[in-house]
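Example for tutorial group B:
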């Protein structure tokens, strides 16, 4: 079932994964409830408050019209971006920025929620890091919009991104020498190196300066953790970072 579709109308007293999805979106929209799959008094009250704010009939019942408003941030992130002469890299950045404006983040547990499932093709859970999934999802949106092949295969692994970059001669390492910054264009992917041959985090380069670069990245937070909970725009230095160039 699509993250944008509601399979049935839900009301108080029901218990299911569908109720859990409604609770996720209530929480993401600022009406936080326990994400436990049980449609109790708290979920009903939060739903009524959301309906009132959205100008919908205040029924406390999760119908199609209510769910459509709940998932409007996701629908906005999936809206096509005009090409307007953009390259693959610049369109990738435009899609990443469009996602960022909708505040994608985890809900209901570590590496869980509709945004995580979107970027990981339905997968979620504590073992499912989603930074590479986000980066390649935005790249996929851009390639599809332009009608061109993906330069990299969709993957959820930073290590596999590095391997693909090396196989395609588009991998730029900073281990032995400072990188040639002129080669790092917006839309390129950065990989945070944990040890030689092991990368722990990935994201999208949006701008490059003399000593730093700007990013949009997922599964991080304002502290820059590689196991954070949201999509953020960050400034990073070049230490322990490699690149897959577009």
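The residue assignment follows.
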């Amino acid at each position: 079932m699509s993250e944008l579709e509601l399979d049935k109308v839900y009301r108080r007293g029901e218990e299911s994964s569908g109720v859990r999805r409604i609770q996720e979106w209530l929480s993401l929209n600022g009406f936080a409830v326990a994400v436990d799959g049980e449609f109790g008094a708290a979920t009903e009250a939060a739903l009524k408050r959301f309906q009132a704010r959205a100008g919908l009939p205040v029924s406390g019942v999760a119908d199609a019209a209510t769910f459509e408003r709940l998932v409007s941030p996701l629908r906005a992130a999936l809206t096509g971006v005009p090409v307007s002469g953009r390259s693959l890299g610049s369109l990738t950045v435009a899609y990443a920025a469009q996602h960022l404006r909708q505040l994608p983040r985890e809900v209901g547990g570590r590496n869980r929620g509709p945004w995580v499932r979107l970027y990981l093709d339905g997968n979620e859970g504590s073992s499912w890091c989603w930074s590479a999934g986000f980066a390649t999802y935005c790249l996929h949106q851009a390639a599809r919009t332009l009608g061109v092949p993906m330069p990299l295969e969709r993957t959820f692994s930073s290590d596999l991104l590095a391997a693909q970059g090396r196989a395609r001669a588009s991998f730029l390492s900073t281990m032995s020498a400072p990188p040639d910054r002129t080669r790092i264009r917006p839309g390129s992917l950065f990989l945070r190196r944990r040890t030689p041959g092991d990368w722990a985090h990935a994201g999208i380069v949006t701008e490059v300066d003399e000593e730093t670069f700007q990013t949009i990245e997922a599964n991080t937070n304002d502290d820059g953790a590689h196991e954070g909970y949201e999509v953020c725009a960050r400034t990073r230095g070049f230490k322990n970072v490699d690149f897959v160039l577009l």
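The first strand starts at residue 171 and ends at 172. Compare this with the pattern of hydrophobic and polar residues in the output above.
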